[in-house]
Specification:
With about 90 residues, the protein is α+β, with helices and mostly antiparallel strands. Helices cover about 45% and strands about 20% of the residues. Helix 1 runs parallel beside helix 2.
Length: about 90
């Protein structure tokens, strides 16, 4: 529970500080995640926070175990087992 609250607070502060009104284009955010049971409630809460910003935030979601996720990790040089990365 504490990790979930911390993750949501961190995401809110990142999105809130990045959205200062200086940019006409949306803030871009990339999320790499593992779609596993223990992490699903946190992922859903992150999605709700991001959705609350409407068109101000453009989030790209990459499932760790999908082809898109594997391509994303390769493009970023990620080779480790990472449950969640923003």
């Amino acid at each position: 529970m504490n990790k979930t609250v911390l993750a949501i607070a961190l995401i809110s502060s990142i999105i809130g500080s990045a959205n200062t009104g200086f940019s006409a284009s949306p803030v871009k955010m990339e999320v790499l995640f593992m779609n596993h049971g223990p992490l699903r409630p946190t992922i859903e809460q992150i999605r709700q926070v991001v959705a609350g910003y409407g068109e101000k935030v453009a989030a790209s979601w990459y499932d760790f175990e999908s082809r898109e996720g594997e391509a994303f990790m390769a493009s970023k040089g990620i080779r480790q087992h990472i449950p969640l990365m923003l």
